[in-house]
Every structure is written in structure tokens, then in C-alpha cells.
Write a structure and sequence with these properties.
alpha/beta; 2 domains; globular; single chain; TIM Barrel
Length: 372
């Protein structure tokens, strides 16, 4: 595993990290096993704070705390709330410190609230002064200019932002600004929610001026594929891979949402559209796995209890679409929203019927969601 210096933090982090977003949907033992295996393969960077991912990471930290870089995040905007969130994460993780704490920053308004007197940044800086947080930063998937503005304050040590074959705008402005301030660069959505094959997408990303990437991992198989992609030698892309990348970029241009919300508002009241067509975790897993593998996946009981309802609600939202095409006309990136919706209208009913027959909604009705 390759390790890189994470900007001015001077932390040496594995070029491949674990995005813990999908872990909350797994059975507890399966999530713990995946994290243990990741560590054994040389991964030391864990981007968490999703559902019960803290509790699944806790056993690994109990054995190897000094060797792991742990990331948490919040969108609480006051100092008091941010400090409460830090304390909650410390308890769940069973640790005395969190290496990196990020503020979810989707627009300039959120950034201004964080930076205001009594705002969340003030709380994180107090936590850093008390030794409970080592470094602070921003995380955002929408308006990258807000992240760049945060970097310019001099307060930001690390950024978490999207960069993949379908979305490369960060290379033009955000990355150079961060480099000028020696800010650590961590990449989310490196395979564009599974739309790009990891074998090529991660290898391409490893050649870019970033420090680590945190694909969401939902199985040991995904973990092994991702590790193999970044460890393959030689590290330089072959001619055939470069040609494949060009083909993928042309294909993804019409399918991969940039989460910019330019398509809003929807006359039919669908909001946010980007969640419906791009960032829904459960749907992305279903699309990438296929029906049989999705049903056989080791879901946590709480996830099983809610999947049927979740997809019924999604189908209801999709059916509200009048095909007016306004969202597509507004999209500055040329995403073919109508085609995506048509495909979802076709692939939702078979899953809903399969889940209804399994009866998970009734069998696990008492299981509480870790997101509650």
C-alpha cells in the first residue's frame, strides 16, 4: 500500500481509505470484519460518522488506535452543538481523540454560519485546543467554491470533496487553492457511486494530485477489488486504460449527476432531484449488485426492516414526474434525467415485489435504525 503525506497535517495516510457510509447497513459482525481486513491490507484512513459505523470501527481502534487515522464530520452549525457531537463520537469510538473533524459544507451560507462568532468552527477549534480533535476541515459535494473559500481562511487542514472520471472540476480550482495552503486532499465518490469500474477509476485517481480516496465499501469483495486497483504495478496508466477512461468519461457525462441543484425546483415537487437520480445509497447498491445479490447481501436487521418502504417511497416519487424535461433543460452538465427516471421506473417494481415476498418489513419491525 502506498502512503502519502496528508498536507500540513504531516499524517502519512494510505492512498486508499475506507468510506464508512455503506457500513451502517451491514450486520455488525460483517462490518467489523471488513474494517479488520482493510487494516490488514495496509489501509489506515477511515472516513466515518455514518449510522453505527463508529461502533463498528471501535474494536479495531481498541487494538491499533495509534496506527489509524479516524475522520468524523457534522453539519451542526453552533459551537455548542459541534462540541456535543465531538463528545458523542469520542464515546462511540472509545478513543480520547479524533484525528480529523470535518464540517459538512454544501454552500457559502453554511460556511458563513460555521465561521460566525459562536459557530461550529469555533467549537472545533476549542476541541482541538483540548486535544480531542487534531485537525479540522471541510467536506462538501455541491458547491466546491465554498470549500475553496474555506481554505482561504487559513483554518482548514483537510478537505473531503468529489473527484472522479465523471466530475473533474476540482482539478481546475479547488485542488490548486488547497495545494497553495498545503491542505490535505481526501476524495469522496471516487467511482461516482459505482458508475465507473474501480479497476480503472481508482487507478486514474491515484495518478492525480490527491492524498487519499475513500470509496464506500459494502463488502469484502469490493474491498479486495479496490486494493488490487491501487496496488497494481506499474502505477502509470496503460494506453488501453487511457482509451477506456475516455470512453467512460463520454458515457458518464450523460448519467452522473454533479449534485449542483441547478435543476431545482421541480414543478412536481420532487426534491432533491439529485438524491433520487444519483446519491441514494440503497438504490446505488441495488443498481450495482443486481436483484439476487442485493437480496442475499448481509444487511443489518434495521436495514432489512426499511428497504421495502424505502423503495416504495422512491417509486412513488418517480411516478410523480410529469416528464416536463425542465430539470434536464436546466442541467449545465447535460445529464439525461428523463432516461435515468425511465430506467428506475422499470427496475424498482421487481425489487419491491421480492422484498414484499421476503416480509422483512414485518420480521424486523422492532429493529431501531442507527440513524434515528
Amino acid at each position: 500500500m502506498e502512503y502519502r503525506r496528508l498536507g500540513r497535517t504531516n499524517l502519512n495516510v494510505s492512498v486508499l481509505g475506507v468510506g464508512c457510509g455503506y457500513l451502517s447497513g451491514l450486520e455488525r459482525a460483517e462490518g467489523v470484519r471488513l474494517l479488520d481486513r482493510a487494516y490488514d491490507l495496509g489501509i489506515n484512513y477511515f472516513d466515518g460518522r455514518y449510522g453505527d459505523s463508529n461502533q463498528k470501527l471501535r474494536p479495531l481502534l481498541a487494538r491499533h488506535r495509534d496506527d489509524c487515522v479516524v475522520v468524523c464530520k457534522t453539519r451542526k452549525d453552533s459551537a455548542a452543538e459541534a462540541l456535543d457531537r465531538v463528545e458523542e463520537d469520542l464515546r462511540e469510538l472509545g478513543t480520547d481523540w479524533i484525528d480529523i473533524y470535518l464540517l459538512r459544507t454544501y454552500n457559502h451560507e453554511m460556511l458563513e454560519a460555521y465561521l460566525a462568532p459562536g459557530g461550529a468552527m469555533e467549537g472545533l477549534l476549542r476541541a482541538r485546543g483540548a486535544g480531542k480533535v487534531r485537525y479540522v476541515g471541510l467536506s462538501g459535494h455541491s458547491d466546491l467554491t465554498a470549500l475553496a473559500a474555506g481554505v482561504e481562511t487559513g483554518l482548514v487542514d483537510v478537505l473531503l470533496f468529489p473527484l472522479n472520471l465523471a466530475r473533474i472540476e476540482a482539478l481546475d480550482h479547488l485542488v490548486p487553492v488547497a495545494q497553495a495552503h498545503d491542505v490535505g486532499l481526501s476524495v469522496m465518490k471516487p467511482v461516482s457511486v459505482g458508475m465507473a469500474p474501480a479497476e480503472v477509476a481508482l487507478r486514474w485517481l491515484a495518478t492525480q494530485p490527491i492524498h487519499t480516496m475513500v470509496p464506500g465499501m459494502s463488502s469484502l469483495e469490493h474491498l479486495e477489488i479496490d486494493v488490487a486497483a491501487v496496488e497494481r504495478r506499474p502505477s502509470a496508466l496503460s494506453r488501453d486504460e487511457k482509451m477506456q477512461i475516455e470512453t467512460l468519461q463520454r458515457d458518464l457525462a450523460s448519467r452522473a449527476c454533479h449534485q449542483c441543484a441547478s435543476c431545482e425546483p421541480c414543478p412536481a415537487g420532487i426534491s432533491p432531484i439529485f438524491r433520487l437520480i444519483y446519491s441514494d445509497v440503497w438504490y446505488n447498491l441495488y443498481r450495482n449488485m443486481g436483484l439476487d445479490a442485493f437480496i442475499a447481501h448481509p444487511w443489518a436487521p434495521w436495514a432489512k426492516s426499511g428497504l421495502e418502504v424505502h423503495f416504495r417511497q422512491r417509486l412513488s416519487e418517480l411516478q410523480r414526474c410529469t416528464r416536463c424535461g425542465l430539470c434536464e433543460a436546466r442541467c449545465p452538465h447535460g445529464v439525461r434525467v428523463m432516461d435515468l427516471i425511465e430506467g428506475m421506473l422499470e427496475d424498482h417494481p421487481p425489487l419491491i415485489e421480492a422484498l414484499r415476498e421476503l416480509g422483512w418489513e414485518r420480521l424486523y419491525a422492532e429493529e431501531a435504525s442507527p440513524y434515528a
